């Protein structure tokens, strides 16, 4: 009888599946109207960067004002409404838009009354105020590790991988443009204001696929547009 109880207990635990992400309880001030599809991020401090990564802020407290940011990466369907030259198959409309350069991403956000998020805004929305390395909290290997190639997924997929503020796709799916230039202490003068910071994608080497930590900074020339690079928008709270 005891063995039966043990088996039932194991089955019950297996049925629970992935644990839910521990999210933050955010109180929206009276009078603030959150735009559709966006999330309110309150003002205050968070830990930015990591001490072992010299090209980050190094793990110091940084403060931001309140702002709004898209819950999902901009989809191909949404972008096609902005740029009708971009035809998109219905089956792919919910996938993140890619092959957009920095100026095109900025123009889309401006058309919605917004802008690209700053690095500070992006990182705070991804890691919250408890200094998470991964948006969803605990570490695990990417399930596709060992395969060559990378395919994006619908922007609303993977609720088990959301950030503490409930944003999707901040530690996987595509890399995302930010508003900031890529810079760091000691950067050669010739490289200054040459590349824009991109965040939140996967690092790939041959058949190895890894999640990028919330503080991980990557860079890209603003005129480039690739199949692994998309964006989301932010907006000031007025």
UniProtKB/TrEMBL annotation:
Domain of life assignment: Bacteria
Listed transmembrane segments: none
Boundaries of every Sulfatase-modifying factor enzyme-like domain copy: 36-235
Entry-linked InterPro entries: CTDL_fold (IPR016187), Sulfatase_Mod_Factor_Kinase (IPR051043), SUMF_dom (IPR005532), SUMF_sf (IPR042095)
Pfam families linked to this entry: FGE-sulfatase
Protein's name in the database: Formylglycine-generating enzyme family protein
Species name: Candidatus Nitrohelix vancouverensis
Lineage of the organism: Bacteria, Pseudomonadati, Nitrospinota/Tectimicrobiota group, Nitrospinota, Nitrospinia
């Amino acid at each position: 009888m005891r063995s039966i109880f043990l088996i039932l207990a194991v089955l019950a635990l297996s049925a629970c599946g992935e644990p839910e992400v521990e999210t933050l309880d955010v109180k929206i001030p009276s009078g603030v109207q959150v735009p559709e599809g966006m999330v309110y991020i309150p003002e205050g401090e968070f830990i930015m960067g990591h001490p072992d990564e010299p090209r980050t802020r190094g793990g110091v407290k940084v403060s931001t004002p309140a702002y709004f940011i898209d819950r999902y990466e901009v989809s191909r369907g949404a972008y096609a409404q902005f740029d009708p030259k971009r035809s998109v198959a219905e089956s792919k409309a919910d996938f993140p838009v890619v092959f957009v350069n920095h100026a095109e991403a900025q123009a889309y956000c401006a058309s919605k009354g917004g802008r690209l998020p700053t690095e500070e805004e992006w990182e705070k929305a991804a890691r919250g105020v408890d200094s998470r390395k991964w948006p969803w909290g605990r570490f695990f290997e990417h399930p596709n590790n060992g395969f060559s190639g990378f395919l994006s997924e619908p922007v609303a997929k993977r609720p088990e991988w959301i950030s503490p503020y409930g944003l999707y796709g901040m530690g996987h799916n595509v890399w995302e443009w930010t508003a900031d230039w890529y810079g760091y202490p000691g950067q050669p003068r010739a490289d200054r204001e040459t590349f824009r910071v991109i965040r939140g994608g996967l690092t790939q080497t041959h058949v190895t696929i890894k999640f990028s930590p919330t503080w991980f900074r990557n860079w890209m020339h603003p005129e480039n547009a690739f199949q692994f690079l998309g964006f989301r928008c932010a907006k000031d709270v007025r």
